[in-house]
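Morning run. Coffee first, then this:
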Amino acid sequence: MQIETVFYILLSALAALAITLFQYFYNTKKGGRLYGLLSFFRFIAVFGLLLLLVNPKFYSNNYSLEKANLIVLVDNSASIVQGDSVKAVEVINTVKNSIKALEDKFKVKTYSFGAYLKDSVPLLFREKNTNITKALASLNEIYANTNTAVVLLSDGNQTVGEDYEFYGKRQGFPIYPLVLGDSTTYEDVRIGQLNANKYAFIKNKFPLEIHLSYDGLGTVSSQLQVFSNGKQIYKEGVALSRVSNSKIISVNIDADKVGLQQIKVVASSFPNEKNTENNQMALTVEVLDEKINVAIISDILHPDIGVLKKAIASNEQRSVRLFSSSAALSSLEDMELFVLYQPTSAFENVYRFAKQKQANIFTVLGAHSDLGFMNRVQNNYLFETGYPVQDIFAVSDPSFSKFDISDFNIEGFPPLESNVGAFSPMGTQDILLEMYIKGERQDSPLLSVTEDNNSIHMLLSGENIWKWRLQSFKRDSNFKNFDDFIGKLILYLSSSKNKSRLMLEYESMYESGNKAKIKASFFDETYSFVSNAALQLKVFQKSSSTKQEMPMLLQGRHYEADLSDVVPGSYSFTVSEKNEGISRSGSFTIMDFDLEKQFLSSNYEKLQRLANNSKGELFFPEDITDLIEILRTDQSYSPIQKSKQIVVSLIDVKIILLVIVLALVIEWILRKYNGLT
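And here it is:
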């Protein structure tokens, strides 16, 4: 407490004493025990009030010991138990027990991971994918700006995600990998990758790219065979050696029948090859008899054009061509869907042609659009003109029900630019994205759709969506979030000619069933989403004629059935609405392929580079004692004593106010009791 504060407290006491003496003893001969008691309570009340005005502060220090964090990160994927599973479990348990000796120095926390980080779930080693980078990145967020060390128990074999070796340089704390699994390198021929388009078109050839590699010191020969729907269509002998240890083989395959074409590639094993699981790989190509032709028409050069083309063409079912507004109308005859980018009066012939074809139109407006022309050429929206170019932000509208956009994550997306202000729909519109300007929600939407008897008109009221695709990549390390969203817009615009009240969304091929899901949307006669439909899914396995039946559960704005427990094979299915008898069918294949079985040896060399890049150190199971000793003796992880000063103002102490009130009340009661005024 400062000297100045002490002085004011003493001054307050003297002032309270003076006031009390003046009121009870000045110019009066009365005294006695009663007046002494009354003066005491008056002094307490006055002194308390003056003390609150001074409001002295009291200081105290709290001391605490802050320990460093020690994270035990355990690989819970199936590859851990591919070799000696008993030994792997013993090593993990030994590490956990040994680290208990460090609890006086560290705050110990255990996590497990497969494709994602999980909070210490039971170690069953059944995860279908391994993403070491994702797990480390999650820890980096949780323990940012803290003194932390990570002990990584893994075989180093990653199946999905960014290469963790290079991520180590961005890790905020050291990583100490401890190698699980067999570190012996075995001779092995394996098919590392198959590349093919997801879709092909009837009576065409589609390319298949096969990546074949060899790990070993000798020379081996392997017979490579390609099968299509069980029939051998290609065969080649391949020689591999230590020097020439990988080859890429390209094969052109005929798409001769509409439907799913199952491709299987097999590389023959050599004598005593230990791992033959990775000698074969399969994929499915869907053969189509038609392709959707999309025209993007623009008179300006803008990065949005390239982004739209890439996003739309990311699905091989669509063909995208670029035109200017002056293109010959005969060149647009085969186009089924028109994307009109920032139209001006030069687009008049294009609009008339699209109306005559009764084609669906996706219009993108921006600073170069002619809104006066838009008011003349179409009757779906009426635009007000004269607004300045400004930033507009997007927020998803949860009430949209034409199709499911719940997977589209727009969080953190930069604003678009536009001079589009208020506008009014001439009919009924459905809003996908709401428009916000300077934090205020606008009456006009950013992305909306209107329908008439002949066609659908979709309107995006802003330019620079290329920034959205870039942000999608920065956040997710891929363009999938953005491209899937644009794909759903195009799918809706292209499929609306044959409207169905029951819409299905599924893949033609799933890997090992761990992500197999079928989604459905059901609409009433006015094409409004029905949230209480009774949708039933029937799944038929083609090889055994077995049948499974399950209800589809409501998930937000769509229904969903999880097929993760379905065994690999080819299936057909039917989704039906029991009350109205509407149904749709399809087919899919679950591949019998497990990435985790492709590895027999641990990748300790990559784990070593991860340790080096993060300033950690690599250990093997026999070095557990050394690991514990390094963590125990490293002074950078010593507990830190921290002090926290607590400041309490007297005015915050409620009991002072209670004492003042109590003193005044007692004084008043005594005065009244003794007949004093």
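The chain has five domains: 3-59+647-673, 68-182+602-638, 188-288, 292-497, 500-593. Good start to the day.
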